[in-house]
Design brief:
This protein has about 120 residues and is mainly β. It is about 5% helix and about 55% strand. The protein is built from one helix and nine strands. A nine-stranded antiparallel sheet has the order 2-1-9-8-7-6-5-4-3, with helices on one face. It is globular and about 45 Å long. It starts with a strand and ends with a strand.
Length: about 120
């Protein structure tokens, strides 16, 4: 379950969006500066095409590639707010732990801790 921490001015709040129970897993294929994300398996539905701008060996900025598919309003909003900065926090066994952070144009900071594992 994704939990987001939102910091705005002097207040901190949490948001837990409703989970889509039809999604059992994500498949992520990464090649250098691009990433394709599939829900529930390759060739199942529409993939999300993402651009990775590497900041250092452990940190990149993720935006959505509008040249490969039409973006939802959420994805457009993320791009308009300069994307999501993803930082590796640790690697353990086959899993990478990360922190994803976005600072909106209004100065609000939204972050999420997550984990992605290799099968």
């Amino acid at each position: 379950m994704a939990k987001y921490t939102i910091v705005e001015n002097d207040s901190i709040s949490e948001m837990i969006p409703e989970r889509d129970s039809s999604i059992k897993k994500y498949i992520v294929i990464r090649e250098k500066d691009t990433q394709i994300e599939w829900k529930n398996g390759i060739a199942n539905g529409k993939p999300e095409y993402e651009i990775l701008e590497w900041i250092d060996d452990c940190t990149y900025r993720l935006t959505y590639d509008s040249s490969k598919s039409e973006l939802s309003e959420d994805k457009k909003w993320i791009n308009e707010n300069k994307g999501i900065v993803v930082s590796e926090t640790k690697i353990e066994d086959n899993c990478l732990y990360y922190k994803a952070t976005m600072t909106t144009n209004e100065g609000q900071t939204i972050s999420q801790d997550g984990i992605i594992c290799k099968e």
